[in-house]
Amino acid sequence: xxxxxxxxxxxxxxxxxxxxxxxxxxxxxxxxxxxxxxxxxxxxxxxxxxxxxxxxxxxxxxxxxxxxxxxxxxxxxxxxxxxxxxxxxxxxxxxxxxxxxxxxxxxxxxxxxxxxxxxxxxxxxxxxxxxxxxxxxxxxxxxxxxxxxxxxxxxxxxxxxxxxxxxxxxxxxxxxxxxxxxxxxxxxxxxxxxxxxxxxxxxxxxxxxxxxxxxxxxxxxxxxxxxxxxxxxxxxxxxxxxxxxxxxxxxxxxxxxxxxxxxxxxxxxxxxxxxxxxxxxxxxxxxxxxxxxxxxxxxxxxxxxxxxxxxxxxxxxxxx
Length: 320
Prior knowledge:
Blueprint: E1 5-9, H1 13-28, E2 33-37, H2 41-44, H3 61-68, E3 74-78, E4 90-95, E5 103-106, E6 121-124, H4 127-136, E7 141-144, H5 149-158, E8 164-168, H6 169-174, E9 181-184, E10 199-204, H7 208-218, H8 221-236, E11 245-251, E12 257-264, E13 271-278, H9 283-311
Parallel strand pairs: 1-2, 1-3, 6-7, 6-8
Antiparallel strand pairs: 3-10, 4-10, 5-8, 5-9, 11-12, 12-13
Helix pairs in contact: 1-7, 8-9
């Protein structure tokens, strides 16, 4: 009988949903699992905007430590929270099928982009969303909001000043809260974060048993290829959740991969974006596509935008 795999996760409702989804897939493949909940920096530091926390591994470091100390065998993450360069000894071994990657506009009642009046107040924890909002509509007032999905929705409902908030559609759908969505914003308006909507499973490097179990039960090759291009784009720009970088890859009708990337200044004044299309039969070719688009955008002005962001982004918290 195969040994029980210990699966690490954050304790939020969404993280638990995602982990239970992966555990169900592993169970269907004949593997027994236990869930191990772990608090991360992002969970413990709730009073500071994400961009002002120095660590890039906001929602992963303590889970990585547990894995390296052999307290867990696998970990489940939202792929958009996973750094593009993982710590030595940790490997991304499986990518789950992606849910809708779009951002959702949520109000206290039905709310669409066209409903936003001049000076409307929107709340978000994401610099990427903030920058794109201000680029599209400089008149908008953007507030910071932290917390899990339920917490953010409760803050919206309790704050009459706010017109709405932006959340990932995938999280709302997975938690059964799709009815709260006023509009799923198209990429032309709000391009999503690299990897948004996809699940990541990590394991210790060299743990073939855990890795093979995750691959057999969870891995979705088409999603893995798409997010490989997005994450290569982000990696080449040396981005993370503290910089306003967006990317989304899809297959075009001819079967080629189409990667749309965007970099926006924090105040929304400048935006650089582009599309790279090419063959991507595997993750290696997809990675090369992402690198090519990033290099092109760096030459078109993204380098100066990112330099300005980093110059003014001194963290106030580095660890909990």
